[in-house]
Specification:
With 150 residues, the chain is α/β, with parallel strands linked by helices. It is built from five helices and six strands. It has helices spanning 2-10, 28-33, 54-65, 79-94, 112-120, and strands at residues 16-20, 45-49, 106-111, 127-131, 136-140, 144-149. It is elongated, with a radius of gyration of 27 Å.
Length: 150
Amino acid sequence: MRREIETALDSYRNIVSLTLEGFTFGGNYVSKNLIGKLTNLKKYNSLNVLADYFDEAMKRLRERFLGVSLDMVLHPLSTNAKQTTLDQQSAANSTPGIAKNELTAQEKSVSGNNIKELYAKGEEIKHIAFAPNSGCVIVYNSECWYVGIP
């Protein structure tokens, strides 16, 4: 059984532990016996199965846990991935912030008439978007973002 679980862990399979009443991954007996690759088992999904509700638990297992595609299953990060994440977070935290005046795009408030003026001047409009719920329009013309209500 141990080899099968380790193979499933190595091949990033969908793993769901079925636990019975009173079982916890934090207990002394469990901690002593889940060694090596099996220590990651407690990081995966688990389903508590109560004896009186076994059929309901199996239905929940099929519908909630096993009915998903493998690419939707979250797996614990590898040691290398954790270290890379920590290194990138450290590098990002040590980078000085950017002041507002250092930003290359500017934001200007506009009305519908100002947007028409941009068109009239022959300005090239790169992007225009409308936010229907707020009534706002966002226009980008290679230099600035214009945000306003038409």
